[in-house]
Amino acid sequence: MLLFGLALGLALVDSSIEPHHATTAPGRIAYRLTWRWGRARPEADGWTTVSDRGYAVTIEQGYVVSHGAALVACAEEPRGLRERAAERLPGSLLLPRAVLAGHSGSGREPSQLDRPMLESLLRAEDQDWGTIDLASPEPAYCQGHYAIGLSAADAARMALPASLDGGSLFVAGSYRQGPGDPHRFAIRSTLAWGAVGPLRALEAAGLGGSPEVPSEDPGLRAELAGRAPTLRIERELGLLFDGMDFEQASSDELAKTLLRNLADSARFELDAGSSSTPGRR
Length: 281
Description:
Layout: E1 27-36, E2 41-43, E3 46-50, E4 55-73, E5 88-89, E6 93-94, E7 113-120, E8 127-134, E9 141-148, H1 152-157, E10 169-177, E11 183-189, E12 193-204, E13 212-214, E14 220-223, E15 230-236, H2 251-264, E16 267-270, E17 275-278
Parallel strand pairs: 1-15, 12-16
Antiparallel strand pairs: 1-8, 2-3, 3-4, 4-7, 4-9, 4-10, 5-6, 9-12, 10-11, 12-13, 14-17, 15-16
């Protein structure tokens, strides 16, 4: 799990990375937030899933704030991210891990989208997130970043549900293990969390409007110069509660695991609008 640097005081910059200067045709990247059910199953008032530890979990309320996303140039794969020092967010929020923030001299990746968006974990609807114009794209991109988080400034200007209370995530419902009675739970977090993953291609599963599915190729070298593809950041609901011990873990531990599962489940799927060449980096 890798934490994505957030803008406006949230950025974590690796000054050891030299900027790459290239003269290329302009490009554009559109971001779209999507969901997949996995083991989860929709119900009348929410959805249910069974975790890898055998907990049957029912979700009755849930929100997450997706903060931003970016592409990562192929020449700049993160190095030693887990060993980098943690930094504090505004409001004394502790970042558990640091991550590569960008490759430009200012520490900002030109493809970076900073647009906090409130998402319902109950409805789990796909949404267009935003579009970034790239005046001079890198020769090729190999990875994507996705970040969850909410700064105090963003919280002040956004219309947020009271249950979120300025946090980045809130989930409430019930859990049950075996034939026992269900137990209520509510998990809230103010942490920022995120992940880096390889770009994948979207390929048609068949003719006549069949759904798109990600290829099993190990990754892409996506060339965006003169192109305008869409990057779908797809998260899996059925994995959210894996590894969680509702009976033994503290509320903070449950919140961290939930955030990590949500971020780590992200797949970065680039549509056919890009000029891309499959292959290992």
